[in-house]
Design a protein that fits this description.
With about 325 residues, the chain is an alpha/beta fold. It has twelve helices and nine strands. The N terminus is likely disordered.
């Protein structure tokens, strides 16, 4: 997709009919896990605010916002189309997000599923430190902003102060080859700063500075867990952690947006064109990431990294594109 097309798409955001129409990397197991943890908190009578650091175009924020209850606040902090605070972060954005990430696109996607926007802070997540958020007031924090070690360390410190005793923090990309800074910050927090793992999925780390056992007990008892989710146990430094793998079987689709009826009424050619444009944007982003990886690594390593890190559909699309 050309820069002009991407700019036009940013100025006139699409109208997602279903959650999968919102671009992003938020797979079924993690959507189900988000809803599982948030539902458990509701059933246990836990109240508190919600926080997402790094939102991209809103796919995970839409899910989190579904669990906002009266009296609670949902805060989303992201640079969106603002300038990054330093050169390294700016370079990271150029590789991954610069062409597609705008606040207007996020807001349009979010309002397709919800009546009101969350509290949006358009700034680097470092502005959340130093008392901007009420300490101990949050029950769920999702960290998916910068992948740079120093920034993730700061985001974890914000989360630790913001979360209540049994609050849950989720970190994205804790194990990906292209995000060693996230891995370093995550496990440093585990071994040196009291963060306790609850569960790992392929893409995300779920933990707490409280007691992980109540969550783990209900997970192992399969309370509200989809049939296709398989759990295994591991002992790490004397503590139990769980790993989730499996299929999407039994994971209920997220509810449709307010645009679903209109989208269904569109001619199939129009729907196919919209889907093709979304697929092309995802491919463009994946190709730019793969090229950046090649610039940093030997060719054979970069090829293996792209195969390992990209979703199978995107990997296949890249191969077809390279064949011409």
């Amino acid at each position: 997709m050309t820069d002009t097309a991407l700019q036009g798409e940013s100025q006139q955001p699409g109208e997602p009919a279903v959650l999968e129409d919102v671009p992003g990397w938020f797979w079924d197991h993690d959507r189900h896990s988000f809803e599982w943890f948030l539902d458990r908190q509701t059933e246990w009578g836990v109240t508190g605010d919600l926080l997402e650091m790094g939102a991209y175009l809103g796919r995970s924020a839409i899910v989190i916002g579904e669990h906002l209850r009266p009296g609670e606040t949902f805060t989303v902090c992201d640079l969106f189309d603002s300038d990054a605070p330093d050169a390294e972060n700016s370079s990271e954005m150029d590789i991954s997000y610069r062409k597609t990430l705008t606040r207007s696109a996020f807001e349009a996607n979010y309002l397709s599923f919800h009546d009101e926007l969350p509290d949006i802070i358009q700034a680097p997540t470092s502005v959340l430190a130093g008392g901007r958020l009420p300490a101990g007031a949050h029950r769920f924090v999702h960290i998916d902003a910068s992948h740079l070690y120093e920034h993730v360390v700061g985001d974890l410190q914000v989360a630790r102060v913001a979360l209540q005793d049994q609050g849950v923090v989720v970190l994205d990309d804790y194990r990906a080859q292209h995000t060693p800074g996230v891995a370093a910050a995550t496990w440093e927090a585990v071994f040196n700063h009291g963060l306790k793992p609850i569960m790992l999925t392929e893409c995300k780390f779920y933990g707490t500075w409280g007691d992980p056992e109540p969550f783990q007990r209900d997970l192992l008892d399969r309370v509200g867990l989809a049939s296709g989710c398989h759990l295994s146990t591991e002992t790490l430094n004397g503590r139990q952690l769980l790993r989730m793998t499996g299929s999407s079987e039994g994971i209920r689709p997220f509810r449709a947006s307010r645009h679903r009826q209109r989208a269904a009424a569109q001619p199939s050619a129009s729907r196919d064109s919209l889907r093709a444009a979304q697929d092309e944007a995802a491919l463009d982003l994946a190709v730019r990431r793969a090229r950046a990886a090649e610039a940093r690594r030997p060719v054979n390593v970069a090829k293996r990294a792209a195969k390992d890190l990209l979703p199978p559909v995107v990997t296949s699309a890249i191969r077809r594109a390279r064949r011409g």
